[in-house]
Structure formats: C-alpha cells, structure tokens
Amino acid sequence: MEYTTQDYLQAIEREQAKRATTYPKMMAKREKQGMPEDELSALKQEFKIQNICLHWIHTIIRHDMTIDPPNAQIYLNELIREYKMRIKVYPRLIYFKRMDATTAQNEIAVWKSLCQWWAKNHLGIDELTFSSKKKK
Fold this sequence. Notes:
Largest sheet: none
Strand content: under 5%
Structural class: mainly alpha
Number of helices: 4
Radius of gyration: 16 Å
Shape: globular
Number of strands: 0
Order of helices and strands: HHHH
C-alpha cells in the first residue's frame, strides 16, 4: 500500500493522543514502584524530547518544510525508534487482545513507510535499512 503525507500526519496524531494518556500512567507506575528521583527525571526528559520531536516532524510534514540534514537525522532516529517500538510491543498487545492484528500490521506499515519517506525526502536516502543494535 502507498501512504500519503496525510496518512503520516494521522499516524503521528494518533501517537500524540495515545501519549497524552500513556506517558503520565507510565511515570506514575514507575514512581509507585520506587524508581529513584534522578531516573524518573531522566525518563520524563526522554519523554519530553520524544514528544518535541514528533511535534516538529508533524509540523514539518504539514507545512512541507525543509530541514537541515543534522536535524533531519535526529528526527529520522526518532521515527525509527517509534517503528521498532511497534514491532516489539504490538505482538504483546495482540496477544492480550488490546489490539487486533490488522490494526497492528497497518500501524507498523505506515510508520515504516513514514521512516522511508522521511529518509528520502529530507536526507536523500533512497533505500533505508532498519538494522538492530545488539546490547552488550
């Protein structure tokens, strides 16, 4: 399936709406579990950066803006992180019947397409590969 910039904007908007409820719950859960304050603060900062990135990606797409390559790469990294998160988390959501398989497949496909579109349009990368880093 071929996706449009409107599809990308809608995917980002769905993610932003989900984060508005999910991130506060995640923070409250970690706080209740006794996560140290410095780690909570770092996590909160990480979430804030992710939200800012998605906000700007949405704005850049919506207004058909150009962006310098170093920032375009930062935003691509965030898009790839989002895509990989879906690959990792959605099977569990399907298993627990919190998401159906078709919705998961569609979401994964649109985020993959968005990553490829961003790489091509903002970095001139024709073929984007999604390598995984192995933790040592």
